[in-house]
Amino acid sequence: MVQPPFNAEAFIKIVAIPYNMTQEELKTTSRITTGLMSSNKQDWGTPKEFITWIEENFSMKIDLDVCAHSENNKCDAYFTIEDNAFDQDWYCVNGWMNPPYNNIVGFLEKCIEEVFVMNNAENMWVLIPARTDTKWFHDLVVPWAEHIYFIKGRIHHKTAGNEKQGSSPFPSMLIHFTCAEELDGAWRYQMKTLRVPKDARGFSK
User: Fold this and answer.
1) Is 174 exposed, middle or buried (0-12, 13-18, 19+ CB in 10 A)?
2) Of 152, 199, 156, which is closest to residue 174 (Cα–Cα)?
């Protein structure tokens, strides 16, 4: 297993303490949440065209969706809000996570635990806002991610019922976490642009 940037015991001690944002970070997060994830918009889903595209381009198959709705799940195995992903073991080869934007930190912590501490998930693919100015990006993404892909262009999200919802008001990034031992060293810990065709980002041709 690839050794995490710091040991599991240290990580457990960190996540046992509530994650504290500064007042300014809370205000910024609140503005984003209001724009995209208001109380009646917690179910913005990834377009299936995007999932198909990344499966083809990364030569893998998603086998667990940890933040799903019964009408927009990305594979047969998935957790809905009723299942509560925080109470589940994420056994998978390639898991998918597009978390509710009002709890990115909690889901990133759980994701890291499942990959590096519990070794339940071999790979996790995570779609989140490209918020490089946040504490969670530098604490929970940069030290742990195998790859960070900044998506060129916006994602056109879907509702829980798989209907078009609208474009994200901010850019997105695709994060790859893995506990796999053998990976091409030339690709490790890279940040790069991911050029996804418009139709694969959920826009009609």
Assistant:
1) buried
2) 152
